[in-house]
Design brief:
This protein is of the alpha+beta class. Helices cover 18% and strands 28% of the residues. A two-stranded antiparallel sheet has the order 1-2.
Length: 105
Protein backbone atom coordinates (compact mmCIF):
# COMPACT_ATOMS: atom_id res chain seq x y z
CA UNK A 1 0.00 0.00 0.00
CA UNK A 2 1.09 3.55 -0.57
CA UNK A 3 1.27 4.37 3.14
CA UNK A 4 4.74 2.87 3.60
CA UNK A 5 3.43 0.50 6.29
CA UNK A 6 1.70 -2.03 4.08
CA UNK A 7 -1.88 -3.20 4.28
CA UNK A 8 -3.17 -5.95 6.55
CA UNK A 9 -5.42 -8.43 4.73
CA UNK A 10 -5.95 -10.95 7.55
CA UNK A 11 -5.21 -11.25 11.26
CA UNK A 12 -5.60 -14.49 13.19
CA UNK A 13 -4.55 -14.60 16.84
CA UNK A 14 -4.45 -17.13 19.64
CA UNK A 15 -3.84 -20.16 17.45
CA UNK A 16 -3.21 -23.02 19.90
CA UNK A 17 0.36 -24.34 19.75
CA UNK A 18 -0.85 -27.84 18.76
CA UNK A 19 -2.53 -26.55 15.59
CA UNK A 20 -0.19 -27.00 12.63
CA UNK A 21 -2.50 -26.09 9.74
CA UNK A 22 -5.75 -24.49 8.72
CA UNK A 23 -7.76 -25.81 5.78
CA UNK A 24 -8.18 -23.86 2.56
CA UNK A 25 -11.00 -21.37 2.99
CA UNK A 26 -10.64 -21.36 6.78
CA UNK A 27 -11.31 -17.63 7.04
CA UNK A 28 -14.89 -17.99 5.93
CA UNK A 29 -15.99 -21.41 7.07
CA UNK A 30 -15.51 -21.20 10.85
CA UNK A 31 -12.35 -23.33 10.89
CA UNK A 32 -10.32 -20.58 12.59
CA UNK A 33 -12.77 -20.36 15.45
CA UNK A 34 -13.22 -24.16 15.57
CA UNK A 35 -9.57 -24.59 16.61
CA UNK A 36 -9.90 -21.92 19.30
CA UNK A 37 -8.28 -19.06 17.38
CA UNK A 38 -9.74 -15.63 16.66
CA UNK A 39 -9.94 -13.44 13.57
CA UNK A 40 -9.57 -9.74 14.38
CA UNK A 41 -9.97 -6.64 12.25
CA UNK A 42 -7.96 -6.23 9.06
CA UNK A 43 -7.25 -2.89 7.36
CA UNK A 44 -10.53 -3.22 5.45
CA UNK A 45 -12.32 -3.05 8.83
CA UNK A 46 -13.46 -6.68 8.53
CA UNK A 47 -12.86 -9.79 10.64
CA UNK A 48 -12.05 -12.02 7.67
CA UNK A 49 -9.48 -12.58 4.95
CA UNK A 50 -9.65 -10.09 2.08
CA UNK A 51 -7.32 -11.28 -0.65
CA UNK A 52 -4.78 -9.52 -2.84
CA UNK A 53 -5.95 -7.27 -5.64
CA UNK A 54 -3.19 -5.02 -6.97
CA UNK A 55 -4.13 -2.53 -9.69
CA UNK A 56 -4.20 -3.92 -13.23
CA UNK A 57 -0.71 -4.09 -14.70
CA UNK A 58 1.01 -3.98 -11.30
CA UNK A 59 2.46 -6.54 -8.93
CA UNK A 60 2.41 -6.30 -5.15
CA UNK A 61 4.38 -8.17 -2.52
CA UNK A 62 2.40 -9.84 0.27
CA UNK A 63 4.17 -10.78 3.50
CA UNK A 64 2.75 -13.66 5.54
CA UNK A 65 4.11 -13.97 9.08
CA UNK A 66 3.51 -16.51 11.83
CA UNK A 67 4.75 -15.43 15.26
CA UNK A 68 5.29 -17.48 18.43
CA UNK A 69 4.54 -15.59 21.61
CA UNK A 70 5.63 -16.02 25.22
CA UNK A 71 2.02 -15.75 26.40
CA UNK A 72 -0.77 -18.25 25.72
CA UNK A 73 -3.32 -15.76 24.41
CA UNK A 74 -3.47 -12.12 23.53
CA UNK A 75 -6.06 -10.29 25.68
CA UNK A 76 -8.08 -9.05 22.69
CA UNK A 77 -11.46 -9.53 21.08
CA UNK A 78 -12.51 -9.50 17.42
CA UNK A 79 -12.59 -5.67 17.38
CA UNK A 80 -8.81 -5.41 17.92
CA UNK A 81 -7.09 -3.39 15.21
CA UNK A 82 -3.96 -4.47 13.34
CA UNK A 83 -2.00 -1.76 15.20
CA UNK A 84 -3.16 -3.12 18.57
CA UNK A 85 -2.23 -6.67 17.60
CA UNK A 86 1.16 -5.49 16.33
CA UNK A 87 1.86 -3.81 19.66
CA UNK A 88 1.03 -6.98 21.65
CA UNK A 89 3.05 -9.14 19.26
CA UNK A 90 6.14 -6.92 19.50
CA UNK A 91 5.95 -7.01 23.30
CA UNK A 92 5.58 -10.82 23.49
CA UNK A 93 7.45 -12.23 20.48
CA UNK A 94 9.67 -15.28 20.87
CA UNK A 95 10.27 -16.02 17.18
CA UNK A 96 8.61 -15.67 13.79
CA UNK A 97 8.70 -17.09 10.30
CA UNK A 98 7.67 -15.24 7.15
CA UNK A 99 7.39 -15.65 3.43
CA UNK A 100 6.60 -13.18 0.67
CA UNK A 101 4.24 -13.91 -2.18
CA UNK A 102 4.05 -11.77 -5.31
CA UNK A 103 0.74 -11.25 -7.06
CA UNK A 104 -0.13 -9.31 -10.16
CA UNK A 105 -2.97 -8.90 -12.61
Amino acid sequence: AGNGKGWTHWVVVNIPYAVNSLPEGAAGDGAVEAVGALQTLNDFGQTRYDGPCPPAGQTHHYLVTLTALKIGKLPVDKAATPAMIDSYVKANKIASASFTAVYGR
